Amino acid sequence: MKTFAIPTREQVTPENQAIFDTLTKVVGRVPNLFAVFATSDHALANYITLSNGKTSLRAKEKEAVNLIVSQVNDCAYCSAAHTAIAKMNGFNDDQIVEIRGGSASFDAKIDALVKVAKSITENKGHADHQLVENFYAAGYTQANLIDVAVAVGDKTITNYVYALTQVPVDWPAIPELVK
Fold this sequence. Notes:
- With 179 residues, the protein is an all-alpha fold.
- It has helices at 14-27, 32-37, 43-51, 59-72, 76-88, 93-100, 108-122, 129-137, 142-165.
- The protein is globular, with a radius of gyration of 16 Å.
- One of its GO terms (molecular function) is peroxiredoxin activity.
């Protein structure tokens, strides 16, 4: 497989350079996966627009979706990145490991969210009907379900880009899950 080089600021378009500058201000660096998006003249801006779009999900809920989708899709990069981000959003290490394992016994609503997001991902959108009903019973709405589907799609994009590029993971290492 051809190796993907991680482009530097000087190797990308002026539009992507501006995004690199913003990422450096916000994150302190340009994460490798975002840099490789800039191999395309448009993919990085398109992805950031999607990822930063409005949603009915709270930041913590979105991170729960990001964690389980990345786990199901076997994405080491996104699992590591979203473990760090989930900690910033109030999850502890044990909760993160549990979410990556497909449940959240510490919060019934998050548990229903994680289970439906896992089912959506594993079944290519054809979620288990009982898990959808449990999602609604936990207090979520149809609008929330659509936003979960968008969040699954968002995270699947980065999971696939990592699978195709295998860029080095530049986030803190995380524990492997016992299967």
